[in-house]
Amino acid sequence: MSGRKTVLVTGGTGYIGSHTVVELYENGYDCILVDNLHNSSSQLVANLETLVGEPIKFYQTDLCDKKGLEQVFRENRIDSVIHFASLKAVGESAKVPLRYYRKNILAALNLLELMEQYEVKILVFASSATVYGDATKQPGMIPIPETCPLGPTNPYGSTKVIIEKLLHDLHISDEKLWKFAILRYFNPIGAHPSGLIGEDPSGVPNNLVPYMAQVASGKIEKLRIFGNDYDTRDGTAIRDYVHVVDLAKGHVAALRYLEKKDDENEGICREWNLGSGTGSTVLEVYNAFCKAYGKEIPYEIVGRRDGDVINLTAKIDRAVKELNWKPQLDVADACESLCR
Ligand code: WQD
C-alpha cells in the first residue's frame, strides 16, 4: 500500500523482532526484514506473511556485511529502523567475548553509518536490563529506574552499554538531527495468540520459560531451579516478566514518540525500561506454567547460578507516562499463549 511508512527491522525474524513486525503492520507500517537467520529460520518469514496477510521484503544479510546491508538502503526508501539483531546469550558472551564485541558493535556501527549516509534519522534500539547489572547493590534502586547507574556484569551487557553510549555521542554531535529510543527489556516471555510465532531458540534455551516448555515437550528431563535460599517470599529469585506482545506494542509506542519529535524538528536520545513493573519469583512462574500446561512438570532445586541476583524488577513509570504505553498481559497470559 502506498503512503505507509517503511520500517527496517534488523533481527526481524527473532523472538521480539517478529512480534514487533506484527504490531507494526497492525499499526499501518510496512516492514523490511534483515536477518542472518543465526537464531531463527526463514519459516518465520512465511509465518509472519500469513499473520500480516501480505508479502514482506526479507534480506538474509548479516549486519557485519556492510556491502550487503548497503544494498537494503540502496534498494528501498526507509523511514526508520528498529535494531534487534544481536548476539544475546549472557553465558556464551562470557566464553567468547571477542565474538560478542565484534558482532554486536560492528553491526551497530555499519547500521548507523548507512543511516547517516542515506539520511535515516529515527532508530529504536533493543537494549536490555542487563546493562544495570546487579541493581540490588545500589540503594533504593528496586524497582529499577532508568537513572540507576549502569554496571554490566557480562560482555553481552557491556556491548549494549557501548552501543547506548555510541547513540548518545552521535546525538550530542548534532542535537537536532537524530531521534533515538533506547528500550531496556526485562524478561520477555509468552507468544503471539495465534501460536504462529513464539520463542523457539535453536538448541538448549537459556531462559526460564522456554526451558520449562522443553521440559513439558519432553525434550529436557526436568527443570532445575537455581537456588531457593534467596530472601524472597518463597526463597526463589524475582524477575520482571513482560509479555512479548506488550513489549512489541512498546516498540510501536516508542516509534510514534520519535516520529512526533521528527515532526517537531527536535532531536532526542532517551532510555525507557520496558517491563511489567511487577516482580515474580521462579516458583510463581513455574506454578503459572504448570497451570497453563495442565499438569506439573518435574523440577529439582539446585544451587544458585553464577551471576544471578535476588531481584530485577523494572520501574516503568517513564514509559507509561511518556510513551503512553501500559502492559496489558501478565505471566498467566504468557504461559497460556506459550503452551498454545
Ligand atoms: C530467570 C530466573 C534464574 C533458568 C536473562 C539475561 C538478560 C535477558 C533476559 C537478554 C532467574 C531462574 C532460569 C533455569 C532457573 N536477556 N532460572 N532455572 O537471567 O533474569 O535474564 O534473560 O537481554 O540479559 O540475563 O533470565 O530466564 O535465565 O532466568 O531457576 O533453568 O529463572 O535463576 O532467577 P535472566 P533467565
TrEMBL record:
Molecular functions per Gene Ontology: UDP-glucose 4-epimerase activity
Keyword Transmembrane: no
Residue ranges annotated for the NAD(P)-binding domain, each copy included: 8-336
Record carries keyword Secreted: no
Catalytic activities: UDP-alpha-D-glucose = UDP-alpha-D-galactose
A GO BP annotation: galactose metabolic process
UniProt xrefs under Pfam families: GDP_Man_Dehyd
InterPro entries the UniProt entry points to: NAD(P)-bd_dom (IPR016040), NAD(P)-bd_dom_sf (IPR036291), UDP_G4E (IPR005886)
GO cellular component, one term: cytosol
Superkingdom: Eukaryota
Transmembrane segments: none
Cofactor: NAD(+)
Keywords assigned by UniProt, alphabetized: Carbohydrate metabolism, Isomerase, NAD
Annotated EC: 5.1.3.2
Pathway(s) of this molecule: Carbohydrate metabolism; galactose metabolism; Carbohydrate metabolism; hexose metabolism
Enzyme class: isomerase
PANTHER family associated with the record: UDP-GLUCOSE 4-EPIMERASE (PTHR43725)
Quaternary structure and interacting proteins, as annotated: Homodimer.
Functional note: Mutarotase converts alpha-aldose to the beta-anomer. It is active on D-glucose, L-arabinose, D-xylose, D-galactose, maltose and lactose.
Name of the molecule in the record: UDP-glucose 4-epimerase
Classification lineage: Eukaryota, Fungi, Dikarya, Ascomycota, Saccharomycotina
